[in-house]
């Protein structure tokens, strides 16, 4: 279920953890509201903030080390389910090009690819419902860990915004810019890092929630003309879209591997 901690992404993960805790330590060392509350014995907010940061680090490692949905063998069961779920009469009505979509075989790992899977050159595996390979976590984002990735982004954003408010409370005035930078330079650096990362996380979280609400992936959105099962669809047509509420419910609340072939070949008026 989890990858090797000391794999190729060890340096990236180590740098992320060090930067996170160094930034948190700076917030405690400067004369911020967090430090004042700690010194007066009001530990509720300091403990809650550290817990939130710790949760973000744990979610980071979970998403980073989790199997994103690697295809390790031909999915004969999935093919059987598709055959059982599609009537013989319906099979005859399908065009030959539509039928052939289920027979894709990866040219690199030579395994039969489920629909919406893609081979990742970095991970050297096909990944179910491939979204993208994220250098931040040094892992793919796919069907098994995508919801955890979005949850991680949400928790990380809360910690960053709270950290920015804490940093703002710690800036002390000075008569000259030179003295101000000497007294607040380290805190300013920490706040700048949190600000830049916050912008990145907001953009990532917003784009992922938008795509999830349409039951689309980053790869499908960016490479639509080159994807065999989408290139024949209209520009605004997504065969997997069942409406934002159903898409969000399915993404966050329905667990397990989905047979996307059944959804793709299902009749438009079939809501079962």
Automatic annotation (TrEMBL):
It catalyses: L-cysteinyl-[protein] + hexadecanoyl-CoA = S-hexadecanoyl-L-cysteinyl-[protein] + CoA. Keywords: Acyltransferase, Lipoprotein, Membrane, Palmitate, Transferase, Transmembrane, Transmembrane helix. It holds the Pfam family DHHC. Residues 102-223 form the Palmitoyltransferase DHHC domain. It is found in: Endomembrane system. It is an enzyme of class 2 (transferase). PANTHER family: PALMITOYLTRANSFERASE ZDHHC12, ZINC FINGER DHHC DOMAIN CONTAINING PROTEIN. The DHHC domain is required for palmitoyltransferase activity. This is Palmitoyltransferase. It comes from Anguilla anguilla.
